[in-house]
Amino acid sequence: MVEGCACMGLLMRRLCSWPKLVSAVVVLLFFGNLILMAGLIDWHLAVQLIANKSGGNKWSDENNDDTNGSSCNLSGEMLASALARMRTAECRSAARRIVCSIDQQTPDSLPNSCPAYDDTQHTEYVGCFRDSPNHRVLSGHYYKFRTYNSPTYCVNMCLRAGYRYAGVEFYDECFCGDVFVSSVISLPESACLQYVCNNRSLFCGGYNAVAVYKTGVTAKPLLIVNYTESDDSLNNVQILFLLQLNGRNTRQGLVAAIRSAGFENVHLMDKRYATIWAGATLLSMVLDVLETTLYSLKWTTWDFVLNLSESDFPLLSMAELETHLARHISALNKGRIFLSSHGYDTARFIQKQGLEYVFLQCEDRMWRIMKRRKFPRSIRLDGGSDWVVLSRDFVLYALSDEELPRSLRQFFSNVLLPVESFFHTLAANSKYCAQTVKGNLHVTNWMRRQGCRCVMLKEIVDWCGCSPLVFRSSDIFKITIEVRASKKMQIFQEFSYRLI
User: Is residue 290 in some structural domain?
Assistant: First the structure.
């Protein structure tokens, strides 16, 4: 009886609190509907993301109208994660379209007209050689392909990174390099037929025996030009300065004031671009400006274009700059371009730069949506600084409808930091590979331990990145005229430096 009274008392207390419970449910439903209507949560995609993590990683959006009327199998945890975090239907539709069409838009191969590339040597067998962990025959870069490997696949990977040779070993190993180590020892061909590649159709070397093939790259032409004093006897050179001004600041007002004063050699673009860090529209901006300059403004007499930010300042005089560039506008040297390369293993650069992934710029950020499954054969990737000095001849080629520049413009529309790779890659695979001068007219204060970060970039890009540091009093020695003039390997970096 006591137990019954206790239970009855508990029941009465619960009944008394029932109106509060109803009110709480109503409030919860109200705010839940607001969240759903605002598009902050996509329950379908969130559930799908959980399903992908639990297994399968494949799903079909049968109601998707963005794939030319046919259903498209969307796979991968990256895509599901990006879709679940996107706020707008427009971005999700754009992501689906790219994933469903990227392989069809990527050509199987592209023409490589670089004089230092011979397509007849692509996959040419060199021989079987003794190898060891302490004395590698090819020491440029090492890949380990656990799911797929073959001589052709390894050759294409090494070619993509610009190496002359590729070697397969121990069924899943791929080595790249430009030269053989000294005292290389040849082995009978049977020594490299010990292990079947993990595709089960070809042989991929042996134990401490590497089968070496040529990639087609025969050399890596790169011009080095030393500092020279100004010379008034040289022909005048006309330079087009492309100034990238970010934000609503006094510099934009200054340029607008100059234009309103009637200076015919100054033009302020009316179109604006979302130039977020690493954004794909940075390349669109540069190409659009160059196209406007040549075809709308009819400015066709300039010799070189040099892009600058609002934080660039000159170190040497215009006369010295003009003297150096004037030496590269003769009939023999027409089309020379000045690019600063990454300066280390290209294969590692490709990985750190995110070139193996497909990105989408939307909602003022860059989304990583998938691993890139396909690259054009015969093409090597390259990159470095996005501050460049380009000849008018090269710019006309970059804007042309020829197969290589047209296809690369499409390829780099879904690439992170595209200006840091587009012009470098175009030059490396065309006749301009022999016209590329090492150096880009900028000196930059890099200190990787302080300038590289991930946490600060998570809100705008699914990747990590590095930025240069400001020049402090302790860095003044880096920008003295004597130091810059002695930097033979950096060509024109003495002319300007960047403060951020």
Answer: yes
- Do residues 207 and 247 both lie within one domain? no
Asked if 278 and 204 sit in the same domain, the reply is no
In the prediction, which pLDDT does 264 show? Answer: 84
As a whole number of angstroms, the distance between CA 365 and CA 457 comes to: 10
pTM above 0.70, yes or no: yes
Joined together, the tokens standing for residue 380 give 């090597």
357-411 per-position pLDDT tens digit: 999 999 999 999 999 999 999 999 999 999 999 999 999 999 999 999 999 999 9
Write out pLDDT tens, residues 339-358. 998 877 899 999 999 999 99
Mean pLDDT rounded to a whole number for the chain: 80
Quote the number of domains for the chain. 2
The residues, any chain, with a CB within 8 Å of residue 227's CB and separated by 6 or more, are 324, 484, 485, 486, 487, 488, 494
**81 within a domain of the structure (yes/no):** no
Question: 100 to each of 61, 88, 148, 178, 423, how far by Cα in Å?
Answer: 11, 19, 23, 37, 27
Residue 315 CB partners (closer than 8 Å, separation 6+): 443, 479, 481, 484, 494, 495, 496, 497
The vertex-297 CA angle with 296 and 301, nearest 5°, equals 120
Q: Which two tokens stand for residue 20?
A: 């509060």
Q: Rounded to whole angstroms, how far apart are CA atoms 429 and 25? A: 64
Please report the sign of the dihedral spanned by the C-alpha atoms of residue 423, residue 429, residue 431, residue 437: positive
Q: Which domain holds residue 151?
A: 119-214
